[in-house]
Design brief:
The complex is a heterodimer of chains A (372) and B (306). Chain A has 372 residues and is mostly helical. Chain A has 14 helices and four strands. A four-stranded mixed β-sheet of chain A has the order 2-1-3-4, sandwiched between helices. In chain B, helix 3 packs parallel to helix 5 and helix 4 runs antiparallel to helix 5. Classes of the chains: A mainly alpha (372), B alpha/beta (306).
Chain lengths: 372, 306
């Protein structure tokens, strides 16, 4: 016990003397939480719009006003022909073309029907999808507007219609940030857990101090605990800072229990530190450890449901998410913060992460050798 | 009493394609309280041997004991009894002198106060800098601190792997004085060095070359075993002299040795003939005298013989 305390004392001294670690634990999370949620945003705005109006009628003008006033589109050019509009897509000055054919107004009035063409630059899939959808919904709206102008609706609908209105539960204003901030918090803990401890141990290998420690009667467990506990505490500090920032800056107050978030966070950090520890037993240099950690973190993040929902992944990817602690924690922290889930709701995830933690740590301890 | 036994130790490195034999069937014994030197050039296998004896490395074959404990089976006891100072400075550079010492004392279940008398003589020299970070110390002071850290738990056997490599002449001298004092306290010391002149300061030395022990004996005995008469030669042009001496038909070996070249002649070669030969080759201010061989000469002789 005295030895373990000494090791801990030494680790903390070194951490406080290393400005890089200190910055990484305290400043990095705050900055990331301040910057990411604004940048990592799915809402598509300012889609560059190019319009080809062959009709030049009152209706086409009205339509153009409506779409450019919607806030989603930025009218960047009027082109005389579709080919020229295509050129502006090629040169990158436009993302979406709307072509209004000649006789648009006439057809609309006479035949009660008119056609319109939308062409979208699909290099950026998300933008193309959403931009196209917005345009289509604006056209639908425009259409409905015309109908109410012209047709006197009968007192009762001739045909019964189902009207669909939706309400958004747990995030009523569909605020993207409320959804993203908790997940970003998880990525921060992932970084601290899997990289910092790994680098720390490999650093001792590089400078040779691990040899001196290996010759001593320190046991494997004492050495490993001495490495895990400081970073475990630092991870919890980061979690606290992150929760503070999300409350002060984004006004996010967990609906569920704060205690449950911490309990889950503790187990999650234990698991991720095990991953880091395992990496450190294989790596000989910090460069190796960094690259392997990055690979693992990328895998955890991309298959973790941070950006893309796990439900829409193919079967094999879904299987991988079953052994991905990050996926569990992202899911759970969203559940607790947004929905107010209790322990019973996250029981399965909790024990899964715990089991993964035991697995990774046990493997790391077995693989750690005091001699070669 | 025997402090260290090494029996038929074999250590190889490498893959299936290519193996390098670092230690090739090494056996020796070190008595308690002895200052034993392992002398050999870089790559002779010194560090591998030290790492095996300090339980950091597993040998492919053979057995070794330290203080009566097997380095493989009873590694825990061995770790409690040895002090190890690796060739490379490997203390925590971001901890102060005092903190390093305290750390190593605690992990060996002891305290600085308990064994202070053992390190006192060395520690007083670095004590004025005890608040300084180890990384900011000069080379000689780093080495003293490393020795203190290796000694703080009162080891019965001390392993020093090339402690004087990269240290200035004065500090080297001081360091060997410290070792003599430690020996008086009954600590067995195994020290390795590539410097032949340090061999004379050991009780016994083992000459190690390419993983094999060429000779084990007291330094003066090794010197006595030198065969033949050694000559020291110098002239105005030392480089040409070395070349010419090596080409001389009566020469067995000739090595550059500071101011002089050390020359070993075949039996029956006359020194007058040699002088004539050198005069023929336009050497001026030639000096030729008999000299006593040193450890390095013995090392060279043994090396050439193998």
């Amino acid at each position: 016990m005295k030895k373990l305390l000494m090791i801990l004392e030494k680790e903390f001294r070194q951490v406080f003397r290393n400005p890089a670690i200190f910055r990484m634990v305290l400043i990095m999370p705050v900055i990331q939480l301040l910057v990411f949620p604004f940048a990592a945003n799915y809402e598509v705005k300012n889609v560059k719009l190019s319009i080809v109006d062959h009709d030049h009628s009152a209706y086409s003008q009205k339509f153009i006003q409506k779409i450019s006033g919607s806030g989603y589109f930025k009218l960047t050019s009027y082109e005389p022909s579709y080919l020229q509009a295509m050129k502006s897509i090629e040169s990158g000055t436009a993302d979406l073309i709307i072509e209004i054919p000649k006789g648009f107004e006439k057809d609309l009035v006479n035949d009660k029907a008119a056609t319109m063409l939308i062409a979208v630059n699909a290099v950026n899939g998300v933008q193309a999808n959403l931009g196209g959808a917005y345009a289509a919904s604006i056209i639908r709206d425009f259409n409905a507007g015309i109908r109410t102008d012209w047709i006197q609706p009968p007192a009762f609908n001739a045909q019964p219609t189902i009207e669909v209105t939706s309400s958004n539960w747990y995030n009523p204003s569909m605020d993207y940030k409320i959804f993203m901030v908790p997940a970003i918090l998880v990525t921060l803990l992932t970084m601290i857990g899997s990289i910092m401890a790994a680098l720390n141990i490999v650093h001792e290998k590089e400078i040779g101090t691990i040899e001196q420690v290996n010759v001593s009667p320190i046991t494997k467990l004492q050495f490993i605990l001495g490495k895990l506990i400081p970073f475990w505490i630092m991870g919890l500090i980061t979690l606290t800072l992150g929760l503070l920032v999300s409350w002060l800056v984004y006004g996010i107050v967990p609906v569920g229990s704060l205690g449950l978030i911490y309990v889950f966070g503790m187990v999650f950090l234990f698991t991720l530190l095990g991953v880091g520890l395992l990496i450190s037993t294989f790596a000989e240099t910090q460069t190796q450890a960094t690259f392997v950690s990055f690979f693992v973190i990328m895998l955890f993040m991309l298959l973790g449901g941070l950006y893309t929902p796990i439900e829409s992944m193919p079967g094999w990817a879904k299987l991988i998410t079953k052994i991905n602690p990050v996926a569990y924690f992202i899911e759970v922290i969203r559940m607790i913060i947004l929905k107010g889930s209790g322990f019973a709701d996250v029981k399965v995830q909790f024990f899964s992460v715990l089991a993964l933690g035991v697995f990774f740590n046990a493997w790391a301890v077995l693989n750690y050798r005091k001699r070669s | 009493m025997i402090a260290i036994t090494v029996k038929n130790i074999v250590k190889t490195y490498g893959t299936k394609k290519e193996t390098i034999t670092a230690l090739d069937d090494i056996s020796f014994e070190v008595s308690r309280g002895e200052l034993f030197g392992i002398i050999g050039p870089d790559g002779a296998g010194k560090t591998s041997l030290f790492r095996i004896l300090t339980t950091l490395l597993l040998a492919q074959g053979g057995t070794a004991t330290v203080d009566g404990f097997d380095v493989v089976k009873d590694y825990k006891q061995v770790r409690n009894r040895v002090g190890y100072m690796p060739g490379r400075f490997s203390l925590y550079q971001d901890l102060s002198v005092e903190e390093n010492l305290e750390f190593f004392a605690t992990i060996f279940n002891t305290s600085i106060q308990e064994n202070y008398n053992l390190i006192k003589e060395i520690y007083v020299q670095i004590e004025p800098f005890k608040k300084r970070r180890a990384g900011k110390l000069s080379g000689g002071m780093k080495q003293k601190l490393a020795l203190c850290c290796a000694l703080i738990h009162k080891p019965s056997v001390l392993f020093l792997d090339e402690p004087t490599t990269g240290v200035d002449a004065v500090s080297r001298k001081e360091f060997w004085d410290m070792l003599q004092n430690l020996k008086k306290q009954g600590i067995t010391i195994l020290v390795s060095t590539p410097y032949m002149d340090e061999a004379a300061l050991c009780d016994r030395v083992a000459l190690l070359q390419s993983g094999k022990i060429m000779s084990i004996d007291a330094p003066q005995e090794i010197v006595k075993s030198f065969k033949g008469q050694l000559w020291a030669v110098r002239s105005a042009n030392m480089y040409a002299l070395l070349k010419d001496l090596k080409q001389y038909e009566g020469t067995i070996s000739c090595n550059s040795f500071g101011e002089f070249h050390h020359l070993l002649l075949k039996d029956g070669t006359n020194e007058k003939e040699l002088l004539t030969y050198l005069n023929q080759h336009q050497h001026t201010s030639i000096e030729l005298k008999k000299t006593e061989p040193g450890i390095e000469d013995c090392f060279m002789q043994l090396m050439n013989k193998n």
